[in-house]
Every structure is written in structure tokens, then in C-alpha cells.
Protein: Diguanylate cyclase
Amino acid sequence: MKLFIRCLSVFFFLLFTSVLAANDKKPLVIVMGADSYPYQFIGETGESEGLLVDLWRAWSQQVGEEVVFVARHWKEGLEQLDSGQASVHIGMAVTDKRLQRFDFATPISTVNTHLYLHKTLNKKHNIEELQPYHVGIVSGSSHEASLLALSPKLTFKYYKNRNALLQAALIGEVLVFAGMEGQIKSSKTSRQIAELFPNRSRLLIKQVGLSPAVKHGETQLLAKINSGFSLLDNARIREIEAHWLGIAQEQEGVRIAATLNIEPYVNLGVDGRPHGLYVDIWDLWSEKTGIPVSYATGDMNSSLDFVRKGKADVHIGYPESDALNTGLQRLQLLYQVKSRLFSVGAPIDTLSAINHTRIGAVPTAPYLDKLKQTFPEAELKLYDSVDAMIEAAQAGNISSFVASSAWTQHYLVQKGVGPDFYQFMDLEFNTDIFVLSQVGNSGLSKRIKQGFALISQEEFAEIEQKWVLDSNNRIYTDKVHLLEISEQDKAYLANMPPLKVGYLANWKPMEFTNQAGIFSGVNSELVELLQDKLAIEVEAVEYPNWQSLISALLKGEVELAGSVAKTQDRSRQLLFSEPYWPSPWALATGIDKESVFNIQQLSGQRVAIVEGYQLINELLGSEYGIELVLVADTEAGLKAVSDGLADAFIEKVINMAAQLKLQQVNQLKMSVLADFSEQHSHFGVHPDRARLVPLINQVLSGVNQPMRQDIYRNWVSKTAAEPSRVGYWACMIICVFLIIFVTLFIFVKFLLSKEVKKRKELEEKLLHLTNYDTLTLLPNRSLLDDRLEQAILLHARELGMFAVLFIDFSGVKSVNTELGHQVGDQLMKKLAQGLRQSVRRSDTVARFSSDEFVVILNRTKDLDIVCQVAETIISNLSKSFEIEQIDVNVITNIGIAMYPADGDVAVELLKTADELMSRAKKSGGNCYKSS
Structure:
């Protein structure tokens, strides 16, 4: 009994000590980054989140050891691991410098690192070209070592964390920054970064492994980490990756299921690839996110099955509704299709006229219930396709049918029965088109939505205008420039006194007083736009210099001023609109001086700048070592450099370019400063008019790139054309002497001039006959050869593409035979005129032979654009031509050859295009073929 009691005591003692030991066991402390989304970051609730965090949680469950995450900024995290306050770093790239401090486990994930380039640097294609620019990086990150290994001459700007780096990029502090591939947590910041630093311009640094790190000598811990991760199920790892990245890392982009034969939304092109509105939207999504996309095509049912069976990640766009539920998850509203009534033979006058008739529709239409409510007395007849409804309408089995307007219009034209059908515009049904996926993949859903959030309304509208030709069928047209003004704001604007706008008297072309004493320039046109859109009165107030203008704005003497730089000091006293005009800084130096691209190159030199510019405060820093020379205006700054009073002059690019063109200063040259090339102009607003700022931003958001280009051309050409008074009188004196000289010359040479004129006219006629066709006045074969050689040289130098279209008109010979050559000649003139009207003025149209023509399309970005031009030519020239009251028709056959894909010499390009034209001819004509 005593022995039993002793054994029992020993057992309980051992059990108690083991429990104590278990309770004394401390969790593994893992230090992680605080803002490296989506790999390691702090969520909105303050919890540690991310792909690496979830991998470590899976490791914790696998090995049965508790883990605790501690978030720190990057440099602080490394110091915590080094000092022993943390046992493990969650995962980072391995560098030589870090190997001296830590031991690393096997990588648990990988990530691509990139250099993100500002959109103004889109022509930079390698890292060596970025040496004039500072590269923004997070202090302590591996990017510095990786980039120096690739280009030792790069210079860097350091930031405490990723958020500080992104904010610096947004305000133009850096034009290049390094970062890992992934998403940005804030949708607003993500959209702004994607717009300024497009993914298509980024440069790959390298793919790096993310490896857990421990202090030197922690061999047992390192072995435990590697062992635990090696035991994780691959399916679980893929599930975590898909949750955070949207797709598993081993997967090559997003696979999209697409329904064919729904033009203009999706269909196969001549290149065998899907084309259309939906495809262009997804291609833009791919460009914005940097995620490649591929397409699996089929009919409506098979394309849905691709998604259900996992053969595709998403469906390109489907009319999902409560009545037409596929069982798949709606990820994103892609588009909205308008459907209308179509009738054959005669238009529909009123809805009541067809209320007692038979109306056709497709069973998958989500608007069937609304259609029945609209026509309660009508008989609804369902058909399996639009084609079947068209045939039923032609046979008289139905009076009308409802279908997608854009799709049906395209289909009717394709079948050649477009003029027989009429569309009723007063009744419209809208169908929502959704991106669909399997239920449950929240990571993919989030990635898809974030990508679409990066696409602006203007970009959607641009794609829509390309594919939806009838503006009545577009959904974005009215949304882009529509101002949303509340009733309260309307009342505020109506009762507001005239808005006082300050401007500079002589700051061409941005703003100035013209000869009539009126506020003029780029800013004046934008102020007029504000005046028109907001229905307000404006009072322009002139100021002689920047200092007096900014002082007046701060005091409230004026309430608005344009081209004001947004600085921290000014932001404390003024309000600012969104940026509305790019305003990079340029440098004027002597023509013999070395080109300057950043401020550091000016160290020890005298630099002129207009008094009152905000840049003065930045240039006063000792790190630049320059002597500032303050001048009154742009003209004075250029004169200071010309007269040797300054070594260089800093001014806005647009103002300096206009002034150089106006003064025709040959001894100076201009270069853009890389340090300050990404700055923008804002409207500065006095705080008393704070309520105006969001309304001003609404108006400015409608100023798109074509509008800016028109404004720029308008005012740059005007200011460049206005001579000074001294220049005017100098020109007048020169003109007088020239008139006297010319008069004497004409008098002396009068007898010889007639003979010279006749000989010159004869030479010109001979030259024209040598190079131009006498009938069509187009370039002939001789000039075509020269133009083609020039195009090859130009595009070889630019590494660009151009297209050669070989065009044959079948039926011209029969017109000559049956109707005579006079009719045939008039036909050729009309065909030549039609060709010229179908292409740009910069393109070449040449007559190759009697009924063959060649078109050179310069600087074509891709085959799609060329195919659109070919379609335009066929559409314009396949119609009947009325000649001497006779309708004449021809068949258009086109072969397309692309440089350099189809050849890099003229003979080869013409031969390929000719062969493809023959194929088009054999196919029945009125079509085009490409390789």
C-alpha cells in the first residue's frame, strides 16, 4: 500500500511539473512589417494580417507552437530581431548585407520587385536610363542592393515606410520608386498611383524569395521552421495565396471565359483572338493591375461551364439577374446593355399600336416581366436567338421584337437587311452585365474589384466610343461631364457676388492682358469654363508680379488665382483645387553649355528665377550651392542669361517655350529638370470661398486630354504670333527695303522672267508627271517606292510599326468595257477621293496600277487599328456611285501587311500585301485579309 501511495505521489509530481513547464513555455515572437500589403500589414481592427501572417498561422497549427506577431516599420523590425526582442522575422529578401546579421530559412513565398516609372517617363525602357532621377525606396529594404547591382550609378531618396514613399510619389517628389508587386490597401491611393505610375511602364528588378530570418546561431529554431513549412499541405498554401492575391502564385494570370458572336461586345477577329468592348475593358484591367489575362471562348452555355468546372477563373460578362440565376457569384458590374423594340417594314408610331400584336423576345432576357407589364394585351413569343426573331419578323409571324440595340444593329447590317428594320427609341430596357466566378474565392473577388476601381469613367467612355457607334446605345457619354450640384449649392452660387480672379499682366501663355486690355491665356479659358458651368460672374483683377498676386490672394483682395503651386506653407492659409495643368520646370542655358537635368549640376553657378516663385524657398538650401538672381519676368530671365548676368534661368516649361519662340533666341537652349518635372498647377482659393472648391474640382474633372491640347495649341500659337512693338517697326523697315529691291529686280529682269517662268512650269509639270498619276492626282508607283523606303527608315529608327494596304477594285474593267472609259475615269476619281477621305492626312494613298491602289498607314500601334481602317475603306467604297445618272458598283479587296512582322523591305511588304489581297478576292470580295 505504501509503495502504491509513493508511486501515485511521483506520478502527480511529474504531471504537475510537466503542466508548469508547459505553462512556462513562451510563444514564438515574430516581427513583421506594418504596411507591406497584402503580404504583412496591420488591418483596420489592429490585427496582424496578410499572406505571410496566414502562412505562419498554418505553421503554428502544424507544429503546435503558439506565435505572436509584432508589427514594426521595416528598419525598426530588423533592429528588434538583431537585439533579440523578436525571435523570427516573418519573411524578407536575402541580401549579402543581411547575411552578415541573420540566418535565413527556406523561402516560404516569392514576390516580383519592380521600378515604377511616372507616366512622363514611358519611353524609358531600361534601368540605365534612370540615372538622372532619384529612386525612392524604403530605408532598410533590399531594393537598394538589388538596384546597385544592376546600375551602380543610381541615386536614392529614402523614406521611413511604404506609405511615406507612396505619398512622395503622388506629390511628385520622386518620379521613380521601387516596390514589390502587389496591391495598395487604400483604393484611392491605388487609383492615383495606377494613373500616375502605370503598370505597363514598370521595369522588373527581380523575383525574390521571402525567407524567415533568425539571429546567427539559432540552428534548432531554423530547422524547426523549415520542417514545419515543409509539412504544410500544398492545397492549403494555394488557398492562402488565392485568398490574398486572387490567384495562386503558380498560376499565369486570370483565365477568362468569353461568349462569342455577340458583337460589338465579343467576337473573334481575323487574328483568331477575341475582340470587342468587353475584351478591351479586360485588357485595360490587365494593363492597370499588371496581371496577364487569357481567354477561353465558347457559346453562352459552354462559357458558363468553363467557370463552373474551374477551367476559367471568371466569365467575361453575363446578363445575370434574379430571374436568370446561374448559381455563380457576381463579382463586378461590367457594363449595361440597352435593349429596344425593332419592327420590319415600317416604324412603330406608338406603343398602343402594337399592344395587341405578337412580340418576340429571347427567354434569357431579364426584362421579360417589365415587357409583359408594358404590353399586357400582347402575345409574347420566345425565340432561342436574335437570328430566329429576325426571320420571324420578316415572315410576318411577329410584329416586332426586343433585343440588344447595338448587337442587333450590327447583326442586321451584317445580314444586309439593316434598312428594312426600324428601332423604336422611346422604350428602353437596361440589362446589367456582371463578371461571374465560382462562389467562395474572396481573394479573387477583391482583386477583380480593385482592378476595375483603377479604371476611370473617361477610359470606359473611350472604349465604348470605339465599339458602340450609335451614341444612343452608349451609357458613359452623359456621365463623364455631368455636374452634380445640390439645390443648396445652386442657391449659394446664385446669391454669390462676382468672383474676383487675380492674374499676372505678362505671363504668357498661361495668363496675360491682351492688346484690348482683356484677361487672356490658358487660365482665362479655364476660368471661362468655371463661369459657364457654375453660372457665376467673374471679375478679373490684373497684378504686375507673383508676389503682389499671392499677397492679394492671402488677404482676400482676390478669391481665386490660377497656376498656384501647392506648398505646405500655403496650404495652411489657402485652399487648393485638384491639379489641372502639368507645370514642370525647365532650364535655359547657353547653347555651348553642357545639358543640365538636375539642380545638383548647377552647384556654384548663378541661377535666375522670377521673383515670387515658390521654388525659391527650395533652392535656397545649402545642399544645392547655387546663387539666385531674382528677375521680374520670363523675358528678363532669358535676357539675364543672354547678357551673361546669370548662368541659367529656371522657368515653367510652357512659359519658357513660348517666350523662346516669340523672341527667337538662338544662343540659348532649353532642358527639363528631372528633379521638378512632375509638378502641377492648382487654382488657389481663399478660405472664404471654401464651398467653391468641390464644385471647381467637378468642372476641372471634365477637362480631358484633347481639351487640354486644344487650349494649349490655341494660346501657344497666339502668343507666339504676337510680335513686340520694336520687332513690328523693324519688320516694317525691312519690308520697305525688300519691296524696293524686289521692284528693281523685277524691272531689270522683266524680259527674262517670262522665259524662266515657262521653263519652270515645264519642269514642274515634268516632275509632277514623273511622281503623280494624271487621272487621280495621287502619287504613282515611282513616288510610292520612295515613300515606302522613307517609312521603313523612319519606323526602323523609332522601333515602330506601320501597315501597307494593297487594294484592288473588282468591276472597274467591266465598267470601262460596258460604259466607256469616260465613265471609268470618273469612277477612278471617286474611288481615289474615297480612299483619301478614309485615312489620315499623314498617310500615303498611291495608285499602283489601273485598278489597284496602295495605302501606307504610318505609326500604327496594332493590327486592330489597321483592321478598323480597312473596314472603313470597304464601308465607304462598297456603296453605289452615281456617274452620269448611272449607278456603278465595285467590289473592294484588301490585303494587309505589317512592318516588320510581314517584311522589313519594300518589295517583301508589297508582295505579302498583294498575296493577301488575292486571298480576299477569292473569298468573295468586300473584305480584307491579314497574315
About this structure: Residues 12-23, 719-727 have pLDDT under 50 and may be disordered. Residues 725-748 form the longest helix (24 residues).
